[in-house]
Design goal:
Chain lengths: 379, 157
């Protein structure tokens, strides 16, 4: 078939006698983790090119934010990346704090770091489960969700909700942590230490996982930077960049932790970096449990949330990568415009580079290791 | 990133993996067996059976409720702060006037269907007149029950 005109988005021209065909993956495919359509140009079972189509669950959050108060936008940020909702709350709260020119007490800083690290572990556990599940091991899915449920129980007790936390506020948070928060985190960490051994025995050394992920979906250093990747995807390609280290916010500069990196940038490296990050998060949590101030104020300001006119930007490291919030504030309690820089969007943009020459079953592996959250891409 | 290796090396690696491969699968299976022989490690809750002991946390955000004393009086002054704080217009405070001509609460209409249980209304209330209850089984077969009037009595001026 001589292809005189390709469908929109496809660019590669090639001289070939073989017959090409087009396949739609999604928007209802379980391995795309949401409503995402991937248009594939195939030669036999090999993918020549891929074009992602976004927007199936676009809600116009940035436009809606213009008619919302700042507090309402914090509730909205839960609905972007729902796996790291608590970290999104922090990202927005930090930007607003810059506008209000206030800080938070030490106790609140520890609350923030601890809840965010718990959220990071929860998000990486979903990755662990979905990665195993997408490769055909449904047992992993339940294993990952077992420990995640314990984290969500802690989050529910502290914030009042499992996923849509809506917790951090500029100058503090909604509540102080309850008394049994520290003992609960401690017992969770002890339990988790044990479970991590099971996890690694179960999946990391598994021959099927290794055969299906080593050398698959390689993202080079140069491409990772060019596409604006961040988080574990960037670090797996060998770049040592973590906002917590390079541009520290909250009290991360006082805590001791390493930034795990890998060299090859293939699926197995991305998996290993995330597993190593769970260990680092547990290390941070152990330090926080030791240093947590037993008493002291937990918020510096209650109400109202009113910003001086200006432009404020904050960036944090969520479990997925760099989450930036850019607030253009008009004087008062409503923003002129809020823009969000989400981590998953660049990762899906880089997907085309990774899948070329691989098969559809490899695409499922690559999608799983990118760990995208579609509501965060579409917003 | 395909590394070049000789045929001899390839065969050696292949044979090695014939041993290590099944061993790694056995390792994984041992985790499964661990759970099989230790039922205490299983965390599944028998949900409808444990209804009596299943209690939500104090801060759990369920349906909106009015804080009432024993006589059914509430603290609402119909100021409308909750209505303004709500991101999706789930609350409609309808004030009325009492005999003395003072503004009091007439009806507190709550649209549960559009409520996301974010809790901003409770946070905004200066009088502590509303709270979110611990009820979590809120499914209904009749959509008209989702629109409710929360106050039992009209406002006390």
């Amino acid at each position: 078939m001589s292809m005189t005109q390709l469908p929109p988005g496809f660019k590669i021209t090639r001289e070939s006698n073989t017959e090409e065909f087009f396949v739609n993956m999604g928007p209802q495919h379980p391995s795309t983790h949401g409503a995402l359509r991937l248009a594939l140009r195939m030669d036999g079972e090999t993918i020549i090119e891929l074009v992602p189509h976004f927007g199936y669950i676009h809600r116009g959050m940035e436009k809606q934010a213009e008619s919302m108060t700042y507090l309402q936008y914090i509730a909205m940020s839960d609905r972007q990346d729902y796996l790291t909702a608590i970290q999104n709350n922090l990202g927005v709260a930090l930007a607003l704090e810059k506008g209000m020119n206030i800080g938070v007490p030490e106790r609140q800083e520890y609350i923030r770091v601890m809840l965010c690290e718990l959220g990071r572990i929860a998000s990486h556990l979903v990755f662990f489960g979905c990665f195993g599940g997408d490769l055909g091991g449904q047992t992993c899915l339940l294993f990952g969700f077992k420990e995640r449920e314990m984290i969500h129980d802690i989050l529910e007790e502290v914030t009042g909700s499992r996923l849509t936390t809506n917790f951090f506020r500029p100058g503090g948070s909604r509540f102080d942590v309850p008394e049994n928060f520290i003992p609960r985190v401690k017992s969770f960490l002890d339990h988790m230490e044990d479970s991590m051994k099971d996890y690694e025995r179960f999946l990391s050394k598994n021959i099927i996982v290794q055969e299906r992920s080593i050398g698959i979906g390689i993202l080079s250093k140069e491409d990772a930077i060019a596409y604006g990747c961040s988080g574990p995807v960037l670090r797996a390609s060998g770049i040592d960049f973590d906002v917590r280290k390079n541009n520290p916010y909250s009290i991360y500069s006082q805590l001791e932790f390493d930034v795990p990196t890998a060299r090859n940038g293939d699926c197995y490296d991305r998996y290993n970096v995330r597993i190593a990050e769970i260990h680092e998060s547990m290390r941070i949590l152990r330090q926080c449990v030791g240093k947590f101030p037993a008493e002291g104020p937990w918020r510096s300001k209650e109400k109202p949330v009113k910003l001086a006119a200006g432009r404020y930007y904050s960036e944090i490291e969520t479990a997925k990568g760099l989450y930036g919030t850019y607030v253009v504030a008009a004087a008062g309690d409503k923003p002129y415009r809020i823009h969000t820089r989400g981590p998953s969007f660049p990762h899906i943009a880089a997907l085309n580079k990774m899948v070329q020459g691989h098969t559809v079953s490899d695409l499922v592996t690559i999608m799983a290791t990118l760990d995208p959250v579609i509501p965060e891409i579409d917003r | 990133m395909t590394e070049r290796i000789t045929t001899k090396q390839y065969i050696k690696r292949y044979l090695k993996r014939c041993i290590t491969g099944p061993w790694s699968l056995m390792c994984g299976l041992s985790v499964t067996l661990k759970y099989f022989f230790n039922p205490k490690r299983i965390v599944t809750e028998q949900y409808p059976e444990n209804r009596k002991t299943l209690k939500m946390h104090e801060r759990y955000r369920g349906r909106l409720q009015m804080v009432e004393d024993a006589d059914g009086n509430n603290h609402c002054t119909a100021c409308g702060m909750c209505e303004r704080a709500c991101p999706n217009a789930s609350i409609n405070v309808q004030p009325t006037k009492n005999i003395a001509g003072k503004k009091v609460l007439g009806r507190y209409v709550y649209h549960f269907a559009s409520c996301t249980q974010c809790g901003l209304c409770v946070e905004a209330c200066p009088f502590g007149a509303i709270r979110m209850c611990q009820e979590f089984e809120v499914a209904t077969t009749d959509s008209s029950t989702l629109e409710m009037i929360l106050n039992k009595k009209e406002g006390q001026g």
